[in-house]
Each structure stands twice: as C-alpha cells, then as structure tokens.
C-alpha cells in the first residue's frame, strides 16, 4: 500500500534523492547525542568537539575537555520550585522587604553611578537593584559551581539541549577572550557575576570588564534591558511599556512581577 503511494523514480532524480538522504543521515550522525545521566557525558564531549571543529578554537575545546558532569547543576535545574509559589509567597521566600531596604541604601550610597547608568541607558535604579538583590543578595552569593562544567552539562542534558548548546558556544568564545577560564565559578546554570549573566548575554550585552565588578554588572544589566526595548521614562509595572523588558530577563511570571514591585518600592514610586 505505502509503496504504491510513491511515484517510481529512476536515473538522476533517484540519485539526487539518495544523495539528499545520505547528507541528512550524515548530519544526524555528526550531531552530539544528548543524555539524561552522567554515563554518556564523556562520549558526548568528544562528539561535540568533533562537531565544533572550525566553529570553536582548539584552546577553547581544550578547556571544554576539562569539564565534568555537574550533578549540582542538574539538581538545581530540576528543583526550581519557588517559581510555582504565589507572588506573596515568592516575595517572602526571597526576602522582598530586605531587598527593598538594602536596595534603597545602595541607591543612596552609589547615587552617582546610578545617575550615570540612567543617563546612558534610560533605566532607573529600582529595577536594577531589585535584580541585583534577587539574583545574588547584592553580590553576597554568586555561586560556586564550575561555569564551563555547568553549561556543558546542560548542553548535554536532553531537557534544553539546543538552548544550552548555544550558550556553550558563547562560553567557548568567552574562553578565547579571557572572560571565562576553566576555574571560573558561578551559579548552577552557568550564570556569572553580580546579576548572573548567561554566557550569550555576556557577549551580547556586557559593557566590558568583569561582571564580578558591581558597576560593570549593573551597567550591563541596564544595557540588557535597553536591548529588550526599555524606553526611558516609561513605566515598568505589568501592563506598562517597560514590563516587557523585565520579562526578557526571566521567563517566570512570579519573578517578573516581583522585580517590578520591588523596583517600584526602591524607587519610592
């Protein structure tokens, strides 16, 4: 039945079809195979390195070879339960009142810095301070997971392999630039710095220098928001023009609303 549904093909047409099929199969064979346990990670690294030749430098691939499967990363990826809380529960769990209090103090202590950032990027202090406080407690907890291992693990892991393969290529570029090394450590998903930038966002929105520098991290965060459509002087609460830029920072609805609320309280609006 199925055979009779296809037209008979001979000569050049058949040769072309067979050639296309061979190319597709070859492409599939070259792709590094994802996995869900540590067992296949070393084989995946070798496959990925072959696939990446010509796209990544030998030095960055040598750095990739030093990575190990990060169980801490997988545990964190599977355990993001706080995003399922109500807004009030989420704010309480993340210490919303403390973020506001400390954010206001930081705003006063670094008034010149925030004025300069707002003049350049159009982003007021409130949302930047809310993000900084939410992400790392104002730099107190930036993470202690090996960054390359975290990103490589998630590129290998089947859950979001395509997304983190993109991040891995960005990380390898940052290795070449000296921004990331084999000893760089940060959050469990490969985020680095005061406001927790993923490698691709460092490439796209980093303003130069290390994101472990507070002024660089805050300027880069403002640049990210501007790059996601932030308009100077417009509101950033849900339904207002700049809320979409906050949505670009994190996909969790409860996180987005928390940043908007805390930022508004820090800005005293």
Automatic annotation (TrEMBL):
<dbReference type="Pfam" id="PF13406">
    <property type="entry name" value="SLT_2"/>
</dbReference>
<protein>
    <recommendedName>
        <fullName>Transglycosylase SLT domain-containing protein</fullName>
    </recommendedName>
</protein>
<feature type="signal peptide">
    <location>
        <begin position="1"/>
        <end position="31"/>
    </location>
</feature>
<feature type="domain" description="Transglycosylase SLT">
    <location>
        <begin position="41"/>
        <end position="236"/>
    </location>
</feature>
<dbReference type="InterPro" id="IPR043426">
    <property type="entry name" value="MltB-like"/>
</dbReference>
<keyword id="KW-0732">Signal</keyword>
<dbReference type="InterPro" id="IPR023346">
    <property type="entry name" value="Lysozyme-like_dom_sf"/>
</dbReference>
<dbReference type="InterPro" id="IPR031304">
    <property type="entry name" value="SLT_2"/>
</dbReference>
